[in-house]
């Protein structure tokens, strides 16, 4: 079959594409940033498109033409500069379904979420429910799959946060640690999609994909810590108000383009519990969904998983420290520009050139220190930091080599700061 997978390089979408390829299908994947995906899966026909801008059936018709099935594995957690929930979850799905009906697409698989409700005050759950309604109101052979907490070898968003908290040194911090969670292996989700597109599931079915038994969040974190091979640690409950403060900060970072899983929508989902009903799946399938223990055992962790878990929580600290360092450096330079210029004058520069150099350098420091806080500018800001540092070290070496022997180590300290920039570049990618 010819199958289109929306969100094809995401946590679920990538696993679905891998399974469909093994089944022998011809697969196309759609997403906004497809360059990395093209390199990793060149056999897939990748389509670069932003779903939030495909809001009419005519926009989708060229995309779905000739397809036998469509799998919608795309989604977003919360509104932000890169994400518009109503457009992605509802508007584009309404248009897509209409296009599929016009183009003669036979089957449609919608990856939804546990807890969708059109009356929910949370936009994630309400817009997801509206998208589901558009699917169920169609004439297509549809299947709606509602996975619990999806566990995969890859880790984005909430599952990355779980790994990071599990790897916390000395203890494991947890907000609402007693809330129930039912997990599902990403391989089981891909299996369900495979069966749905093949017609092996009853058409027009809505199915929860969750393990049989629920675990508390604390138990999930302890299981992840053991999976990482780290020494046992106790769970330390974090007051709910601290979680809300963290969510407000994460929401603010979301406005700057950072997609933190700590945002308010995630806390709302956790507060209601991530649980579903296994009965509907068990009644139609002989494939039992794996419990958490089996899921983790099937993807053993090694040193790279421990590296990732430890670095993940350090990432905001790295970027915050770099921003503060460059902002303070620039502001101090502007406040004490005369003193800084005097140093350059003492090494042979004219007063005018020295003052101009100090002002230009200080402004550049402030610009890159502020730009690194905005996700879309972060890479350029980091490259600017490298260029400025190398320029500073080169110019100082030529004009005032004696500064290398300064007892306060101003020149020497620039080198570890440069190394921290390289670390930030290495961990910048989100998926």
TrEMBL record:
<feature type="transmembrane region" description="Helical">
    <location>
        <begin position="407"/>
        <end position="428"/>
    </location>
</feature>
<dbReference type="InterPro" id="IPR051207">
    <property type="entry name" value="ComplexI_NDUFA9_subunit"/>
</dbReference>
<feature type="transmembrane region" description="Helical">
    <location>
        <begin position="312"/>
        <end position="332"/>
    </location>
</feature>
<feature type="transmembrane region" description="Helical">
    <location>
        <begin position="352"/>
        <end position="374"/>
    </location>
</feature>
<feature type="transmembrane region" description="Helical">
    <location>
        <begin position="381"/>
        <end position="401"/>
    </location>
</feature>
<protein>
    <submittedName>
        <fullName>SDR family oxidoreductase</fullName>
    </submittedName>
</protein>
<dbReference type="InterPro" id="IPR016040">
    <property type="entry name" value="NAD(P)-bd_dom"/>
</dbReference>
<dbReference type="Pfam" id="PF13460">
    <property type="entry name" value="NAD_binding_10"/>
</dbReference>
<keyword id="KW-0472">Membrane</keyword>
<keyword id="KW-1133">Transmembrane helix</keyword>
<keyword id="KW-0812">Transmembrane</keyword>
<feature type="domain" description="NAD(P)-binding">
    <location>
        <begin position="7"/>
        <end position="154"/>
    </location>
</feature>
<dbReference type="InterPro" id="IPR036291">
    <property type="entry name" value="NAD(P)-bd_dom_sf"/>
</dbReference>
<dbReference type="InterPro" id="IPR025695">
    <property type="entry name" value="DoxX-like"/>
</dbReference>
<dbReference type="Pfam" id="PF13781">
    <property type="entry name" value="DoxX_3"/>
</dbReference>
């Amino acid at each position: 079959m010819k199958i289109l997978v929306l969100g094809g390089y995401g946590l679920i979408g990538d696993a679905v594409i891998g399974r469909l390829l093994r089944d022998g299908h011809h697969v196309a994947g759609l997403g906004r940033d497809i360059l990395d995906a093209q390199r990793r899966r060149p056999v897939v026909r990748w389509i670069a498109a932003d779903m939030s801008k495909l809001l009419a059936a005519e926009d989708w018709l060229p995309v779905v033409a000739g397809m036998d099935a469509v799998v919608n594995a795309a989604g977003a957690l919360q509104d932000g500069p890169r994400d518009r929930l109503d457009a992605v979850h509802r508007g584009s799905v309404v248009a897509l379904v209409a296009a599929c009906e016009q183009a003669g697409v036979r089957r449609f698989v919608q990856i939804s979420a546990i807890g969708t409700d059109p009356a929910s005050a949370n936009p994630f759950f309400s817009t997801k429910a509206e998208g589901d309604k558009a699917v169920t109101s169609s004439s297509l052979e549809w299947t709606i799959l509602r996975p619990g907490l999806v566990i995969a070898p890859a880790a984005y968003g909430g599952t990355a946060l779980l790994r990071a908290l599990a790897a916390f040194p000395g203890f494991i911090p947890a907000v609402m640690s007693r809330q129930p969670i039912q997990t599902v292996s990403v391989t089981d989700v891909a299996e369900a999609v495979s069966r749905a597109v093949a017609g092996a599931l009853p058409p027009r079915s809505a199915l929860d994909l969750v393990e049989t038994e629920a675990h508390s969040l604390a138990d999930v974190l302890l299981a992840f810590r053991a999976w990482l091979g780290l020494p046992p640690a106790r769970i330390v409950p974090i007051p709910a108000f601290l979680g809300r403060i963290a969510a407000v900060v994460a929401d603010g970072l979301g406005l700057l383009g950072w997609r933190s899983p700590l945002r308010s929508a995630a806390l709302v989902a956790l507060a209601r519990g991530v649980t579903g009903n296994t009965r509907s799946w068990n009644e139609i399938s002989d494939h039992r969904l794996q419990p958490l223990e089996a899921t983790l055992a099937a993807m053993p962790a090694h040193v790279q998983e421990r590296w990732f878990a430890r670095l993940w929580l350090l990432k905001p600290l790295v970027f915050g420290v770099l921003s503060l360092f460059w902002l303070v450096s620039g502001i101090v330079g502007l406040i004490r520009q005369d003193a800084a210029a005097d140093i350059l004058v003492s090494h042979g520069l004219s007063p005018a050139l020295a003052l101009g150099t100090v002002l230009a350098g200080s402004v550049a420091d402030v610009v890159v220190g502020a730009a690194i806080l905005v996700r879309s500018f972060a890479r350029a800001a980091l490259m600017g930091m490298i260029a400025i540092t190398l320029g500073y070290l080169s110019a100082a070496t030529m004009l005032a080599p004696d500064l290398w022997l300064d007892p306060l180590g101003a020149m020497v300290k620039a080198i570890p700061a440069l190394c921290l920039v390289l670390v930030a570049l290495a961990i910048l990618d989100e998926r």
